[in-house]
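[job 4471] stage=fold_predict status=RUNNING
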Amino acid sequence: MNVISPNSPAYYLTSFAKDRLPVFRRDSLKSVACAAMNEARLSGQFLILAYVIMPDHLHLITDGEKKPAVVLRFINGLLSRRVIDFLKSEGHYASLEKLRHASYRRGHEYSLWDHHPNVRLLTSESMFMQRVHYTHQNPVRLGLVERAEEYRYSSARLWSRTPLEGEPLVVDLGNIRWRRGG
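[job 4471] inference complete, writing structure tokens
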């Protein structure tokens, strides 16, 4: 990754669950989401620099090598498939019903995501760090934990250099080049 600048931005992506349903309230589904995000990163060949998975949405910071629409297609597509397959395999039919389409879109019976994702261009290191902090503070603001590092499904521990054994998703911190070295 190049140094973050207007010519080499990073992207801050937010995806909301359909109707803001708390799809990711259970750790099992957050784990499925982390595995799907890692799979998407590998197949889409992009970096994940920071993330958090909240009960009804996720935030992700990625490099600017791929267009945000491409990254969202990989992330949201794989996450949808893996979460819906998990709900089917576990017999969570009530949850699936909430994700059912009134009319099928593109032949899909279910939709996990609101189809209006939020994308922000990060063109400076200060903007980047503000979004990293905002992302990591999400669980604190919602009252899920007292400290950002306590929330398992976030990159906060990785950023504070206190990872757990078996982190659910390791981010690409080593690929960030800072303007002032480091």
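[job 4471] summary: The helical segments are 27-44, 68-89, 93-99, 125-141, 156-159.
[job 4471] exit 0
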